[in-house]
Amino acid sequence: MAESKCLGIHYARDALTAVMLERQGDKSTITDCWQLPFSSEEQLGLNEFVSELSGQIRERYPNKVSATALSLGGRLYQTVQHHSDFVETRQIMQTLRYDIEVEFATDADAIAVSFQKLPNGGNVEDGCDLIVHTARRDELTSLLEGFEAAGVDALIAEADLSSWMHWLKDEGVLRESESCLYLAWTAETLYLLAVDDKCNPLLARSYVCPSVEQASEVLGSELKRSLIMLGEESQPGKVYYHSENFIPDLCKLVQEAVGVTPAELSETNVRKAFAAGVAIGYLNGGEVADFRLDGLEPHSMVESRKRGYYGLSAAIILFFLALSFVMQLNENRFVKVQNQVDSEIIQAWQDTHPGQKMPRNQSAGQLTRDINNLYANLRKQKLQQESQVVSGSASRTFMVALDALNSLPEKFDLQIDTLRTQAEVVNISGSVPELADQIALEAALKRHESITIENWDFTQSGSGNRNDPTSRRQFNMAMKVAQESKTANQDKDENE
Question: Which ranges of the chain have pLDDT less than 70?
Fold first, then answer.
């Protein structure tokens, strides 16, 4: 879920300005604004500043502030224009610090860098021009740690010139019609921002001017030089300024240099615009010239990632524990199945090799193959015996009749009195205990594919009492045996 509130802070050498900004749809509203001035001693040590800032935040916001964004005053960074051979943000970030080191003879490890892209006309091969903001890494790190000590973990930290652009866009001051020039003076720093007719920044400058005289001098010289840099096609058609501290004499200098009468912006205090702008930039989620991206990650994000790593580690450990448990269960199941198979192999060996000692140096696979080979040999011998029986002979008819009777259960009570065979006919007489046995005998004979029952008769002998062992059902049965050149078992084995 997107955040809707952000505490925007503008930090300069002489004062801190903070606003609480709420976002509802496309509308931004400042619900609270306050300023914390401090002396030069506090600027250097930050101890009293940290204590005062924590007190203000605890007093104004009893509930924890969910998001904080920091805008750095003009004295804390420097701004230059630079041309990069790349247009993709990732490639620019990988090469920019070292380009700055070569171009401006600066130690790349000692600076933190952020940038804004300038329009390049759509030609990717030409690269793009950048507005580059650089700050001393040690100084910026110390400042961010001071804010963290005060309970403020700024999620982004950008130059106030970049924050100014966010505020101007949100206020609708930037218009896609003509190039404009924006000016402000905080009694400490003079700001100059030029944008083209498509609301893209062309030039951004900040100058340390702690007095009116210095501001007038810088404005008189730098404004003319900046207009020359813009070129004829990008000369500003309108000029806007924040009226606080921007005295009429400065307005007169601007009018003389540009030839356009400056117009006041709705917000007189540019520091408030900076603080609101950095909050707007964070909430909008657009391009932010963030120093944090240059190895100055917020403490809260580091801790959140650590917690994520801990959670991931715990999940991985639990996964492997569960996997180990499942593998152990499978191993136990495998051992159980293996023991069962070994028992069956031993039993099969004893059944097929009576009186022989089972070899211990053979694998289960080898033993299984030996048993199968022995079984195949026995089947082969049986088939050879069956093949010696002449088709259509009384001996084969006798063998078929015995095969059918052998399909009865082992303990089936059957008494055969006579069994006479001819070439294709078998006559059997005998007895069974009761009607159920009679039905079972009939079913067994009918199941045999070579036998057809021609006729039979059954009579009751004895007392007829079921409990009388001498009482039995006598039968006489005539069956016809189909003669074939090959038995069904022979066909099956040859197919196998």
Answer: 1-2, 39-47, 120-124, 175-176, 299-306, 349, 360-364, 367, 383-392, 463-467, 483-496
Integer Cα distance of 195 and 212 in angstroms: 26
d(CA 99, CA 108): 9
CA neighbor of 247 nearest in space, from 212, 198, 295: 212
Give counts: helices (H), strands (E), the chain: 13, 17
C-alpha–C-alpha distance, residues 335 and 330, integer Å: 9
> What whole-number distance in Å separates Cα of residue 155 and Cα of residue 67?
7
CA distances from 242 to 72, 250, 254 (A): 18, 12, 13
**Mind listing the pLDDT tens digit for each residue in 64-113?**
788 899 999 999 999 888 888 888 888 888 888 788 888 777 788 888 99
Rg (the chain; Cα; Å): 51
- SS3 call for 279: helix
CA angle 437, 443, 448 (to 5 degrees): 135
β-strand partners of 330 = none
Token pair for 325: 């448990």
User: Considering only CA atoms, which of 247, 300, 289, 338 is closest in space to residue 112?
Assistant: 289
Rounded Cα–Cα distance for residues 266 and 167 (Å): 12
The pTM of the full predicted model, rounded to 2 decimals, is 0.63
The two structure tokens encoding residue 448: 């045999």
Q: Which residues pair with 115 in a beta bridge?
A: 132
Mapped onto helix, strand or coil, the DSSP state of residue 12 is coil
pLDDT score at 487 = 46
pLDDT at 488: 46
Kindly report the backbone phi and psi dihedral angles of residue 341, in degrees, each rounded to the nearest multiple of 5, phi listed first.
Answer: -65, -40
Burial of 478 (0-12, 13-18, 19+ CB in 10 A): middle
* DSSP string for residues in 393-454: SHHHHHHHHHHHHTTS-TT---EEEEEEE-SSEEEEEEEESSHHHHHHHHHHHHHSTTEEEE
Sheet-wide strand order for 27-37: 27-37, 15-24, 5-11, 68-72, 156-159
- Phi, psi (deg, nearest 5) at residue 14: -105, -15
Are 461 and 474 contacting, i.e. CB atoms less than 8 angstroms apart?
A: yes
For residue 336, the model assigns a pLDDT of 87
